[in-house]
Design brief:
alpha+beta; membrane; transmembrane helix; iron ion binding
């Protein structure tokens, strides 16, 4: 098998060149025909090279920033090429909402990378599935058991325990190491992961024996396999994504890496589920996602149930962390705004700790949350969709087969909508519309039929965490932290954990 690889690799270069040149002329012919057949013009096109298109201009791995710069020259909607793939990029709220709501029926199909096809078992999770019966059924189960209003009331006790644990750990650090910066992520991420496990399978897990791997894994190792590894794999680039007609050429290093992530993830999830099935068989039922799926979701296969549970775990343990970590960084470097938030909390709550019931009376806290979503949106680019029938967007004709990229970062940094968008100013959201409408203004949780099912939980956990942390501690940045704002690959997740120095404000709540 290994001897067969060099010949394939040897012909790879000529094949790319020949296939690319052929495709270049074919696509040019198709574009000419489309211009003749449509009454509307095609979007402005970013000039690129034959065969590879604009790939070289995206090599810095921050495409959302490059897309935003292009919008300044070519407008809020334009086309580009990523290898052989034609892509239209949307960079304004109006055009993005048009795509997600009014023209959704024409562009509702997901376009997944090779890595995501493997890691999602070809769209077997809600976030990456097409808008079909599976999506509707699975999202219904997720809302009923975990993320809907009634389910959120049931899981309130888990959220309260999580926030109390977070505050207690920060206080313990401040009492023993008052002058040493604390690693914010180590504490918050661990507790958030525990919450997601309780909601998904009914309990936090300190360790588990995984028969398929032949080892006992600690909680941190479980987190690495279920959350961190797949997150890294999801943004892993396979050059064949840009040249689908050459998918027959091996990319062995990529394939082995992703398949290993998949295998380890499957093994750990099966071990977690098997343990809970024994608990259920003993007659002990818990209000969690797994128990609901096993008793109610008779149309779903075991593999689909496994994937849906994994989705609940990975999403609960990521988006909220990104939001709260950035919010605490911004507040730590801005004592005036931190004090304004503290004053609001004290005026509303007095000496009592903040509770979820008080959130609706804290408009500046809501502003902190929404402004953090705007400047540091957890999803910079909406997962790609493609046009399965010719559509019209922003006054342009969008040909069938075109990929659609909605650049959330670009929308939220549009100077035509946001005054001085590079600045973090929670005041821009104070005195405006209701909070649910502000969610759609920043596009942080999508919109239309595919609005994120976890928006309510993300808002509850993020706001109560920010409020309690500011209420109980004074925050300031560790040395060098103000400029430590690099992000991970294609994401907006901080590359390095936030390091802060905290001082307790008074007695423990």
């Amino acid at each position: 098998m290994h001897q067969a690889l060099p010949p394939a690799a040897a012909i790879g270069g000529p094949a790319v060149a020949l296939g690319g040149v052929t495709l270049f002329f074919i696509s040019k012919y198709i574009k000419d025909q489309q211009k003749k057949s449509s009454s509307l013009p095609l979007p402005p096109e970013v000039p690129g090279l034959p065969v590879i298109g604009n790939l070289l201009e995206l090599k810095e791995k921050k495409p959302y920033k490059t897309f935003t710069k292009w919008a300044e020259k070519y407008g809020p909607i334009y086309s580009m090429r990523a290898g052989s793939n034609a892509m239209v990029v949307l960079n304004s709220n109006d055009v993005a909402k048009e795509a997600m709501v009014t023209k959704y029926s024409s562009i509702s199909t997901r376009k997944l990378s090779n890595a995501l096809k493997i890691l999602t078992c070809d769209k077997s999770i809600v976030a990456m599935s097409d808008y079909d019966e599976f999506y509707k059924t699975a999202k219904g189960h997720l809302l009923t058991s975990t993320l809907g209003p009634n389910a959120q009331k049931l899981h309130r006790v888990h959220r309260d325990v999580m926030i109390n644990n977070v505050c207690n750990q920060f206080r313990a650090h401040a009492n023993t190491n008052p002058s040493v910066a604390v690693n914010f992520r180590n504490i918050f991420e661990s507790q958030l992961f525990g919450l997601s496990l309780k909601e998904a399978i009914g309990e936090d897990v300190e360790s588990i024996y995984v028969e398929e791997l032949g080892i006992t894994l600690s909680g941190q190792e479980i987190f690495q396999i279920l959350v961190m590894d797949p997150m890294e794999g999801a943004i892993d680039v396979d050059w064949r994504d840009f040249f689908p007609y050459l998918k027959w050429i091996p990319n062995q290093a990529f394939e082995i890496r992703i398949e290993q992530m998949y295998y380890r993830r499957q093994a750990v999830m099966k071990a977690l589920i098997d343990k809970q099935k024994k608990r259920i068989a003993s007659g002990k039922n818990i209000k969690c996602y797994l128990d609901h799926l096993l008793s109610e979701a008779d149309t779903l296969s075991e593999q689909q149930i496994l994937m849906l549970l994994w989705e609940a775990i990975i999403e609960s343990a990521d988006t909220t962390l990104v939001t709260v970590e950035w919010a605490m960084l911004e507040l730590s470097k801005d004592p005036n705004r931190q004090n304004r938030l503290l004053s609001e909390i004290q005026n509303v709550c007095g000496s009592d700790k903040v509770t979820e019931e008080k959130l609706c009376h804290l408009p500046y806290l809501a502003g902190v949350f929404h402004e953090t979503l705007r400047k540091h949106s957890p999803v910079a680019i909406v997962p790609l969709r493609y046009v399965h029938e010719e559509a019209q967007l922003g006054g342009y004709s969008i040909p069938q087969g075109t990929e659609i990229a909605i650049n959330i970062y670009g929308c939220n940094m549009d100077p035509n909508v946001w005054d001085r968008p590079e600045e973090w100013k929670p005041e821009r959201f104070v005195g405006g519309k209701e909070g649910t409408l502000e969610l759609h203004k920043t596009l942080a949780f999508g919109g239309g039929k595919r609005v994120c099912a976890g928006a309510m939980q993300a808002m509850l956990i993020s706001c109560i965490a920010i409020a309690r942390l500011v209420q109980q501690f004074e925050w300031r940045l560790g040395e060098g932290e103000e400029t430590n704002v690099d992000t991970v690959g294609l994401t907006t997740r901080k590359l390095h954990p936030l390091l802060t120095i905290i001082n307790p404000r008074g007695e423990e709540f």
